[in-house]
Amino acid sequence: MATSARGVVDHSALKVNQTGIVATVLVAFIGSAFFKPALVLIPLLAVVLLLGTFAPQLALFKQLYFKVLKPRGIVRPRVVQDRPEPHNFAQGLGGVFLLVSSALLLPLPVVGMALALLVAVLAFINLAFGYCVGCQIYFQLGRAGFIKATPGTTGTV
Description:
Strand order of the largest sheet: 1-2
Number of strands: 2
Shape: globular
Oligomer: single chain
Order of helices and strands: EHHHEHHH
Helix content: 55-70%
Distance between the termini: 15 Å
Structural class: mainly alpha
Strand content: under 5%
C-alpha cells in the first residue's frame, strides 16, 4: 500500500479490516451464549490479524476489499497520503491482544472475552471516529525511542 517514504494508504481497506474485526468479535461473543464453540473465532481472528501484519497479502479482510468489494464498486477507494506502518502496528497489536484473549478464554473466560471486546471497541472507535489508538501507541513508542517509528505519524486515520 505504500509507494514512497510518505506513501499512500487506501483507508477504505482499513475500514473494511476494522469492520471485519468488530463483526467477528461480536459474532463470537453473541454466538458463544448459544454455542460455546463460537469462541474459536477469537483465536482464528488473532491468527488472521497476525498473518496480515507480517504478510500483508494474507490480510483476510483487506484482501476481501481489494479482490471483491473494490472491483465490484461495493466499497470505493479512499486513498490518502499516509504511512502504512502505524496501521500495520495497530493491527499486530490487536492480534497480540486477541492471542492473549484466546489463551485466557478457557481458564478466565470473562477476562479473555473482555480483552477481545476491548479490541473490537478500539477497532470501532477507529471505524466510527477515525482515531487509531494503536497508531497513537506506535507514535508514542517511536517518540520515546522504543521503536523506530516513522516521523509525522499522527495516530488518526
